[in-house]
Amino acid sequence: MRTTTVVIGAGQAGLAMSWWLAKRSIDHLVLERGELANTWRTERWDSLRLLTPNWQSRLPGYGYEGGDPDGFRTMPETVDFLERYAKLIAAPVRTHTSVTSVRRSDDGYQVVTNRGSWHCDTVVTATGACNIPQVPAVAEEVPSTITTLTSVQYRSPGQLDEGGVLVVGASASGTQIADEIQRSGRPVTLAVGEHVRVPRIYRSKDIQWWMDASGVLDERYDEVDDIVRARNVPSLQLAGYADRRMLDLNSLQGIGVKLVGRLAGINDGKAQFSGSLRNVCALADLKMNRLLTAIDEWAAASGIANHVDPPQRFEPTEIEASPPLLIDLTRGAIKTVIWATGFRPDYSWLDVPVVDRKGYIRHDGGVVEAPGMYLLGMPFLRRRKSSLIDGVGDDARDLSAHLASYLGNRYLSSRSAMPAFSR
Ligand SMILES: Cc1cc2nc3c(=O)[nH]c(=O)nc-3n(C[C@H](O)[C@H](O)[C@H](O)COP(=O)(O)OP(=O)(O)OC[C@H]3O[C@@H](n4cnc5c(N)ncnc54)[C@H](O)[C@@H]3O)c2cc1C
């Protein structure tokens, strides 16, 4: 079978690329191993709502039209949103089609799946940044009496034994999961490493509104000082609760969550935590205040300052005098450990030598180091918003333009290579 472009993955990234390819009249297919929006269906916990407001789910040719632009979608609503989009744009999606290999061929790529092979000129990898939970090596040392789960395996407090829970990681997933479990009556200890603290509402507007309007989310990958660092910044400590309450380490402590430092090791069943808790929290407070100052400056310059509440600052993160450095996991107080320690992509199916030793595809703003191959949906791929539903459309536009010009150049060079009489 032959097509011009194979897009792998039918999440928002694959669909946004499909829209742009269709717009440029490029024949293509979107191959998806599960159902459309598979990750949102199968890899998120039950109560999760998007942390981006409804208005902030703009995909090419599609946006929010309901009556609650500031609300936050549940997972079924998110799946429904993407399904409606796929239908509207008539995306050529083949579901239940797992790509098991992509390799170079004489004239492009061969894409092998459980449902046959395709030959194509160009490939777009839109398989997501969050395929495999990144669990630290110390996980091996957790005593066998304790149940361990990743944030992908976690569904709701009801699946946990009664008793204490250690949540490792204090970014978006870890803090939301800690909040929910503590409220279920199971005492939570939260191991806190580097994190990004932001308020939900600032000066009467959603923080995402400020970051969108002031251009923070549009910042480009070739404009930041350290793109490697920018691509590894943890997700915002933020939640899409219906009451729009702020989720941070102070609010968690307010409901009884205990904080400890970063999990540094486990020896003889004893978990050891870093003594840097106070420092990482001070740094997160400092960075939040820097962001708020930048917002205030933009608000003043743009004139919006006169139409919103005055600047405000939030209480520094409170840390108890001597947070515990050791918890004996054999004592029975902790029944479950939940790893909310991030993700990495899975390219085990990719037989083109473009994956670095850390398991990431080498690319320049999504243009992969292999002719005619593209990457979409990774953190800060081309812009700060690249991995968001709202951000992937602009990247897909740019990369589809590059892809179209690559195809055009190939066509021209194949014509010029032909003997004159056969033209
Ligand atoms: C817990 C969590 C909450 C998030 N909340 C938000 C939020 O509120 N707002 C927001 O804008 N962003 C959010 N994100 C970030 C981002 O929007 C999601 O990660 C989103 O799923 C990324 O979309 P994607 O299309 O890039 O990848 P995915 O949605 O992961 O889609 C990739 C698709 O590729 C398929 N696939 C993978 N490998 C293969 C293969 N070999 N063959 C065929 N198909 C394959 C998968 O089945 C999947 O359907 C969140 C992320 C996480 C982890």
Topology readout:
Blueprint: E1 5-8, H1 12-23, E2 28-31, H2 38-42, H3 75-88, E3 93-94, E4 99-105, E5 108-113, E6 116-120, E7 122-125, E8 132-133, E9 147-150, E10 164-168, H4 172-183, E11 188-192, E12 196-197, E13 201-202, E14 205-206, H5 207-213, H6 227-231, E15 236-237, H7 249-254, E16 258-261, E17 263-267, E18 270-273, H8 277-302, E19 326-328, E20 334-339, E21 343-344, E22 363-364, E23 367-368, E24 373-375, H9 392-417
Parallel strand pairs: 1-2, 1-7, 2-3, 7-24, 9-20, 10-11, 10-20, 11-16, 12-15
Antiparallel strand pairs: 4-5, 5-6, 8-21, 13-14, 17-18, 18-19, 22-23
Bound molecules: flavin-adenine dinucleotide.
Flavin-adenine dinucleotide (FAD) binds next to α1 and α2.
Question: What does this protein structure show overall?
Answer:
- By secondary structure, the protein is of the alpha/beta class.
- Helix content is about 25%, strand content about 20%.
- It is built from nine helices and 24 strands.
- The strands form eight sheets. It has a five-stranded parallel sheet with strand order 3-2-1-7-24, covered by helices on one side. Strands 9-20-10-11-16 form a five-stranded parallel sheet. A three-stranded antiparallel sheet has the order 4-5-6, with no helix packed on it.
- Strand 22 and strand 23 (about 365-370) form a beta hairpin.
- Helix 1 (about 10-25) packs across helix 9 (about 390-415).
- The longest helix has 26 residues, at about 275-300.
- The chain is globular.
- The mean pLDDT is about 95.
- The structure holds flavin-adenine dinucleotide (FAD).
- Flavin-adenine dinucleotide binds near residues 13, 44 and 126.
